[in-house]
Design goal:
With 123 residues, the protein is mostly beta strands. It is built from no helices and eleven strands. Strands 2, 4, 5, 6, 9, 10 and 11 form a seven-stranded mixed beta sheet that branches.
Amino acid sequence: QVQLVESGGGLVQAGGSLRLSCAASGLAFSSYTMGWFRQAPGKEREFVAAIDYSLGGTYYGDSVKGRFTISRDNAKNTVFLEMNSLNPEDTAVYYCAAGYGGVPDRAYTYRYWGQGTQVTVSS
């Protein structure tokens, strides 16, 4: 049974930082592209970042480029999202996802999804 468990969300002031983690189990983690998506109330799910399984190439949504950094530790089956210079527009539920093939910034690429962790940025 595949499980993706996000952690690290919370309430932070604008300009602050958070580090999200996603612990994976039940899958060959190093063979999967790992992604982060987010969804704010009343908005569509948005691609945030992805890191591929092969050379560790990274991809970012335009709204987070230069502020967020995705990384992975294959030995610990964990993917991270370092978020800096947070602003209220970053408030959303953040989801971790695992997939292979396809395009890294498209939700259809990902077969497995976590339950999400809430990030709230106050102004």
